[in-house]
Amino acid sequence: MEEPLKKAEVEIKKNSWEKVIEEDAKADRAGIMQLLLQSEFERRVQSEVRRKLNEKKSKYETRRKALNPAISKIRLIFKTELTYEAMLDQIKGIESEEKNGLCTELTALIVPEQIKVEITEKMEQDYHIKFNNSLNYEELYRHVYRAYITELKQFVRTLEKEDDTK
User: What is the pLDDT of residues 88-134, one digit of tens each?
Assistant: First the structure.
């Protein structure tokens, strides 16, 4: 015949369940926080890309004739290449000196890994919490350059509208 459970044993089991529930709740909060931080990171990428391009807009306005073909070339390369380095290699192969130079300048302005580090540090300062970015290297490149190409296309459209009104 089994001995009846002692009160202390029941309390230990009860406490262990409470710990599991408490740990699950902490993990849920941490998971939710990471999701929110990831969304914030992606939003800040777009803002940072816009800010960096705005700093150099006056420089590129003077080269407006070459800008549209250069951006078109970057868009085409972006569609076929999976990494930032592969895109840079393709740009090195552009024969037109003017287009090559402009594409090289435009891609040097936005370096995905550099933007990731800057934004992550700023977010950790702002929120006082460690942020683990869930984007891998390729996803980061795709996200950053998708935002960048959108901004470049908008910039060219604005320049074309200015030309049309003149």
Answer: 999 999 998 999 999 999 999 999 999 999 999 999 999 998 888 99
In whole angstroms, what is the distance from residue 136 CA to residue 95 CA?
32
- Please choose, from the candidates 142, 21, 22, 39, the residue with its C-alpha nearest in 3D space to the C-alpha of residue 82: 142
Query: Which residue has tokens 């990171």?
Result: 41
Note whether 152 and 135 are within 8 A (CB).
Answer: no
Burial class (CB in 10 A: 0-12, 13-18, 19+), 100: middle
CB 121 within 8 A of CB 37: no
Q: Can you give the three-state secondary structure of the chain, one letter per residue?
A: CCCCCCHHHHHHHHHHHHHHHHHHHHHHHHHHHHHHHHHHHHHHHHHHHHHHHHHHHHHHHCCHHHHHHHHHHHHHHHHHCCCHHHHHHHHHCCCCHHHHHHHHHHHHHCCHHHHHHHHHHHHHHHHCCCCCCCCCHHHHHHHHHHHHHHHHHHHHHHHHHHHHHC
Residue 118 to residue 21: CA distance in whole angstroms: 36
Indicate the range of 19-23, 71-75, 84-88, 113-117 predicted with least confidence: 19-23
